[in-house]
Specification:
Blueprint (H helix, E strand, L loop, with lengths): L1 E7 L4 H8 L1 H9 L3 H5 L6 E4 L9 E6 L13 E8 L9 E8 L2 E3 L6 E3 L3 H14 L2 E3 L1 E2 L2 E2 L1 E13 L5 E16 L2 H10 L12 E4 L1
Antiparallel strand pairs: 1-3, 1-4, 2-3, 5-12, 5-13, 6-7, 8-12, 9-10, 11-12
Helix pairs in contact: 1-2
Length: 208
């Protein structure tokens, strides 16, 4: 895997367009791995990082193949050299994590996906998803070692469906987890967590 950091230029018209519509952002970022996507060898994940008001927007991108950022429009962003990311995971390993995700459930009656409302529901969703993905959410004295940093709704207009406006919940989690099954955990890192990955959700970042 490869991890890239892009600091977007607020003066760039293309960057402002992409910040206003996650579908556009995904389309722009996909250009850097377009050939691998065509060949089915790629799984691009990205996340708009939280920044302070005066700081330029930062996008973190994870790809399975080395991206070619020279395809970006001139002046779009400052691009830091992509770094190879090959984590060595082992059972019992404790790591800090960050994840922006869409905690939602699909209703059996209608098949419609609905956002979970309360923090306990969202944390239970996270705990379940991490467990399915080979991790365990660690517990402290007062509960899971995780906090919700942001809880917002993203809006994006989908060009491919006659301009349909999509609204999706985006919750930014930070906490501490433990690796239970390294093979599953590695697969989870590659495919992401939860729905809405085109909208910049699901990228699970780990740090010692």
């Amino acid at each position: 895997m490869w991890v890239s950091k892009l600091v977007l230029n607020p003066a760039s018209r293309a960057a402002r367009r992409d910040l206003a519509n996650p579908y556009e952002m995904h389309r722009t970022l996909s250009k850097a791995v377009s050939q691998a996507l065509k060949e089915g060898r790629e799984r691009l994940l990205w996340r708009l990082e939280p920044t302070r008001g005066i700081e330029p927007p930062v996008v973190l991108v994870q790809t399975l193949t080395e991206p070619l950022w020279s395809v970006l429009e001139e002046g779009y962003a400052e691009v830091f050299p992509p770094k190879p990311f090959e984590p060595v995971l082992r059972p019992g390993q404790r790591l800090r994590f960050r994840l922006r995700a869409n905690p939602a459930v699909r209703l059996a009656a209608t098949g419609k996906r609905v956002a979970l409302k309360t923090p306990p529901e969202k944390l239970a969703w996270l705990e379940r998803r991490l467990a399915e993905g080979g991790f365990r959410l660690l517990e402290g004295e007062t509960g899971p070692l995780v906090r919700i940093l942001q809880d917002t709704f993203l809006e994006a207009r989908h060009k491919g469906e006659e301009g349909r406006l999509v609204q999706i919940q985006a919750v930014l989690f930070e906490g501490v987890l433990e690796v239970v099954d390294p093979e599953k955990a590695r697969a989870t890192l590659e495919r992401g967590v939860g729905p809405g990955k085109v909208l910049g959700l699901g990228l699970l970042s780990l740090a010692p």
